[in-house]
Amino acid sequence: MSTTCITKAALSQSLKDCMATTPLEKISIEAICSRCGLNRKSFYYHFGDKYQLVNWIYDQEMGLKLYEELDKRPVDELALMLCRYFERNRVFYCNA
What we know:
Blueprint: H1 3-19, H2 29-36, H3 40-46, H4 50-69, H5 75-88, H6 90-95
Helix pairs in contact: 1-2, 1-4
């Protein structure tokens, strides 16, 4: 795994951890960075703001996975997969 992927994964997990207790609008870049041990410079190297990080999380976790499965599964299985994803990540999306 590349350094970029590791850094983005750490930032995304940190944001998700913060969002378990705090709405997105109240989370600072400093809080995200301090939780995963990175500095603000690293954050801004990869993302313009926390909303860009939220979009990246969605693209990585849901967008790409769904796209990969489109030709492999029937629509009803895809719908169930989507529902399960949102159920597992309910807190994240409710606070986003």
